[in-house]
């Protein structure tokens, strides 16, 4: 089961008046509720992929700039993400952590001298449908930093992201007159996030 914990970030994570992430939720019950969900899934022989990191519909009114500002993303990691990774690392039903669903919906079509960040190959493919325009560099940096945070708390955790199409997730040329590029390969992630 792929389980979204939030999308636009309206109700969770819990922001203070200055846009800083101070906890997952105002009541402080989310981690215990999610643990109960994982334990039930284990009892039912099911696996869960938590998507506490669903930022695919980025909106600065809700996300408070968390995609771009290092201080704010670090607060999200320390006050929400890492405590949940640590809390669930011994739960056998937790299969993976997923960062984004179809991040290409928010990508800007733009030329860049670095192939990992040049999205002109996506022009006319349907990418960028959400109307939000994030650079591929920012999206991949976001993925790399999230992966590093999860792996620091739980080194063997599986971390994933999904793509809306093979166009942005393979280097193979599968369609006539269209090249494909895997933006999510390790070299691109490290180039973006360090």
So, the CATH homologous superfamily of the domain at 2-104 and 134-165? Glycosidases
Principal-axis shape equals globular
CATH class of the domain at 2-104 and 134-165: Alpha Beta
Tally of separate helices = 5
Averaged pLDDT: 84
Structural class, from helix and strand content?
Answer: alpha/beta
Q: Order of strands across the biggest sheet?
A: 1-4-5-6
Fold-level CATH name of the domain at 2-104 and 134-165: TIM Barrel
Task: Describe it.
The chain has 194 residues and is an alpha/beta fold. It has a domain at 2-104 and 134-165: Alpha-Beta Barrel (TIM Barrel), CATH 3.20.20.80. Helix content is 32%, strand content 10%. It has helices at residues 30-43, 60-63, 70-88, 136-153, 186-193, and strands spanning 2-4, 14-15, 21-23, 48-51, 94-98, 159-160. Helix 3 runs parallel beside helix 4 (136-153) and helix 4 crosses helix 5 (186-193). The two termini are 31 Å apart. The model has no long low-confidence stretch (mean pLDDT 84).
Quick structural gist:
By secondary structure, the chain is an alpha/beta fold. The protein has helices spanning 30-43, 60-63, 70-88, 136-153, 186-193; strands at residues 2-4, 14-15, 21-23, 48-51, 94-98, 159-160.
List the helices and strands and how they pair.
Blueprint: E1 2-4, E2 14-15, E3 21-23, H1 30-43, E4 48-51, H2 60-63, H3 70-88, E5 94-98, H4 136-153, E6 159-160, H5 186-193
Index terms:
194 residues; alpha/beta; TIM Barrel; 4-stranded parallel β-sheet; 6 strands; globular
């Amino acid at each position: 089961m792929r389980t979204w914990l939030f999308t636009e970030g309206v109700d969770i994570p819990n922001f203070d008046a200055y846009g800083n992430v101070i906890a997952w939720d105002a009541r402080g019950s989310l981690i215990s509720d999610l643990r109960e969900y994982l334990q039930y899934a284990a009892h039912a022989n099911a696996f869960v992929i938590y998507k506490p990191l669903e930022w695919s519909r980025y909106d600065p009114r809700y996300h408070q700039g968390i995609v771009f500002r290092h201080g704010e993303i670090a607060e999200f990691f320390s006050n929400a993400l890492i405590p949940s990774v640590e809390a669930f690392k011994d739960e056998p039903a937790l299969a993976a952590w997923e960062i984004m669903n179809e991040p290409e919906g928010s990508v800007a079509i733009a030329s860049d001298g670095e192939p990992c960040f040049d999205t002109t190959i996506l022009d006319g493919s349907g990418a960028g449908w959400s109307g939000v325009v994030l650079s591929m560099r920012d999206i991949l940096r976001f993925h790399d930093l999230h992966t590093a945070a999860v792996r620091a708390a739980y080194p063997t955790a599986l971390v994933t992201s999904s793509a809306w199409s093979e166009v942005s997730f393979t280097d193979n040329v599968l369609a006539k007159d269209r090249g494909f590029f895997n933006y999510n390969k390790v070299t691109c992630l490290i180039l973006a996030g360090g």
